[in-house]
Design goal:
Length: about 100
C-alpha cells in the first residue's frame, strides 16, 4: 500500500537533480544565432546570464568567442543538454623554439 502513491504520481520518481559540470576544450563550431556553441563535440547552451571572461578576467561577450579558441566551460548538465554558467578563455601554451 505504501507504493501506490508513487505509482500514481510518476513525475515524482522522474525528477533529476542538476549536475554541475566543468571541462576544457576547443570551440568546434559557433552557429550564427549564437544560442549555443560546440565544444569537444558537445552542445553548450549560452544564456543571457552566461558569464564569458578572458584568462585575465576581462568580461567578454558572445561575439568574442571564435572557432578554435580553447575554453573552460563551467555549467550544469540538464536533460536538454549542458547550460553554461561561465566560459573562460584558456591561453594557448607558449612553445619555446
Amino acid at each position: 500500500m505504501i507504493l501506490i502513491p508513487f505509482v500514481l504520481q510518476p513525475g515524482v520518481a522522474q525528477v533529476r537533480a542538476e549536475v554541475k559540470i566543468s571541462f576544457t576544450g576547443n570551440i568546434d563550431h559557433i552557429p550564427k544565432d549564437q544560442k549555443f556553441i560546440i565544444v569537444n563535440e558537445m552542445g553548450v547552451y549560452l544564456l543571457p546570464n552566461t558569464k564569458i571572461v578572458s584568462a585575465r578576467g576581462t568580461v567578454l561577450n558572445k561575439a568574442d568567442l571564435k572557432r578554435g579558441f580553447m575554453v573552460r566551460v563551467e555549467g550544469v548538465r540538464k536533460p536538454e543538454g549542458i547550460v553554461a554558467e561561465r566560459i573562460t578563455l584558456v591561453p594557448k601554451p607558449r612553445v619555446k623554439p
